[in-house]
Amino acid sequence: VSAATRRVRLDLAYDGTAFAGWQVQPGSRTAQGVLEDALSRLQGGGAVAVRGAGRTDAGVHARGQVADAALSTELDDADLAYALRRMLPGDLRPLAVRTVGSEFNARKAALGKTYAYRVDLSPHADPFRARFALHWPFAFDRVRVEAGLARLPGRRDWSGFAASKCRVRSRVRCLTEARIAAASADEVTFVFSADGFLHHMVRNLVGTLLAIGRGQLEPEQIDRALSARDRALAGPTAPARGLCLERVVYPAAVEPSADPH
Amino acid sequence: VSAATRRVRLDLAYDGTAFAGWQVQPGSRTAQGVLEDALSRLQGGGAVAVRGAGRTDAGVHARGQVADAALSTELDDADLAYALRRMLPGDLRPLAVRTVGSEFNARKAALGKTYAYRVDLSPHADPFRARFALHWPFAFDRVRVEAGLARLPGRRDWSGFAASKCRVRSRVRCLTEARIAAASADEVTFVFSADGFLHHMVRNLVGTLLAIGRGQLEPEQIDRALSARDRALAGPTAPARGLCLERVVYPAAVEPSADPH
C-alpha cells in the first residue's frame, strides 16, 4: 500500500544567482523545478506540485521563502528534512520541514512579506558581497533617500512602481514598512514589508530611491509617480542581485506549533 | 620619455573560490597572476613583479592581503586605483593603492598576520555563507573547543601543525591570538594571529579543534602534537573555503600616512 498523502510546509533559503527565478519554466533551472524534482524522487516518482508564497524573479534570493506540497511518503518530518538536505544543491536549502493542515496554502495564507535590498556603497566592490548586493559606487545622500522612504508607507495604488507587464486586477497594496534597516559607511540595506508586492515593485522603488540619493530625481518624484500611476515617472529597475525575500508572515493560527526540523 | 618607476602598495580583497591560490602558476588563474597582468597592461606592457605578504592556498580568501610592485606609470595613486577597479575582475578587488618608499617589501616588512576561519554550524547549510565558510553540521562542544584554543598561544615549534611538505628552516612562530571571535547558535568564527604561519597551519589547527569539539580528540591532543612535533598526532586539515587572510600588520613607520585611494 502506498503512504498516505499529507501536506508539508517547506521553509527555504536560496542563492538566486544560478536560478531562472522561482517558478517552473521548461528548459530552465528554477527553484520550484529543482524542489519538485527532489520531492518526486523522494517519494519514489509521481509528479509533485509545489506552491510558493512568492514568485521571485531570476537572480533574486530568498532567506525565508515558504512553499507547500502534498506528499506521499512514509518519512516523518525529521527524516524528510534530512533527506532533502542531502538531495538539494548548495544554493537551495531547506530550513524547516513541517506537516501542516491539509488546507494550508503558502501563497493564499500569507498575510504579508518582507523583502530586503542590499547595496554595496564601497568604491572597490566588496567581493564577499558581490553575489548578494548591488554595487553602487555613486553619491548616496541618506537624507534625501530618507525623505523618499518617508513618502512610501500606506495603502495605495502602486501602478507607478509596477512592471509594465504586470497583469493583476488590483494594484492596491498596503506597504507597512519602508526603511533603511542597516547601514555603515559602505553598505546599506533597505527593508520593505507589505501585504503583497506587484511585479518589480521593490526593485523599482530601490532604483528610484538610489536615483534620489544620487541627485538625479527629487524625493517628490515619488508622489508624482504614485498619483499619476505612471511607471515612466519613477526611476529605473534596480538589478535582481540585491533583492532577497526575507520573510513570509502567516496568521498565528496556521503557524506550525511544533519545532521545525 | 617613460614614466619614473615608483613602488606601490596594494591592499586587496579576494574571493578565493575561483583562484588556484595567490602565487603565479603557469596555466592556472592565480590572484598574483591576474594582478600582474592588469598592472602590466596598465603601464603599457612590460613584466610587473608583484610581491604578496601571504601566499594563500587555492580556495583561501583574503579581506586584507597586502602586495607591492614597482610600476612605471604617470597615473597618480587615485587614478591608478580607479583604473585597477575597472580592470580587475569581481573576485579580486583593490581596496587601497598607495605610493610607498622604494624599500617597502610587503612580505619582509610584515610583523604579523591575522587569519579567520568561518564555520557554518546550521543543519541545513546556509547558501549565503557557502562560499566563505565550512559547513559543519556535527556536534560542536564549545567548552571543549575553548579548552583546545587555550593551549595554543605562545612562541613554539609548530611542526605538529605544519603540512608535511612544509620546507622552512625554522618552524618556531609566536601565536598571539587564538580565539572564537564571533559565534551564534549556528555560526562560529575562529581568529588566529601570529608573527607568521607555517603552510596549512591554520587549517590544521581548525581541523583539530573541530575534532575536539565533536568528541573525536581530547583537548590534550594539542599538547601531544606540539611536544612530539608530529603532524600525525593532530587532526585533519580543514577545507580551504572557510579560511580568510584578514589583516597584515606592519610597523607604524612603514604604514602609509596618506589617505588610501
How would you sum up this structure, described in words?
Two copies of one chain form a homodimer. The longest helix of chain A is centred in the last third of the chain and has 14 residues, at 201-214. In chain A, strands 1, 2, 3, 4, 5, 6, 7, 8, 9 and 10 form a ten-stranded mixed sheet that branches. In chain A, a hairpin with a 2-residue loop joins strand 8 (172-184) and strand 9 (187-194). Chain A has five helices and ten strands; from the N terminus they run E-H-E-E-H-E-E-E-H-E-E-E-H-H-E. The first copy, chain A, is α+β, with helices and mostly antiparallel strands and 261 residues long. Chain A binds chain B through residues 13-15, 61, 63, 81, 85, 90-95, 123-128, 130-132, and chain B through 13-15, 61, 63, 81, 85, 90-95, 123-128, 130-132.
Comma- or semicolon-separated keywords:
alpha+beta; globular; homodimer; 261 residues; ten-stranded mixed β-sheet
Structural class of chain A: alpha+beta
Number of strands of chain A: 10
Pair of chains with the largest interface and how many residues each contributes: A-B, 22 and 22 residues
Q: Compute the average pLDDT of chain A.
A: 94
Oligomer: homodimer
Shape of chain A: globular
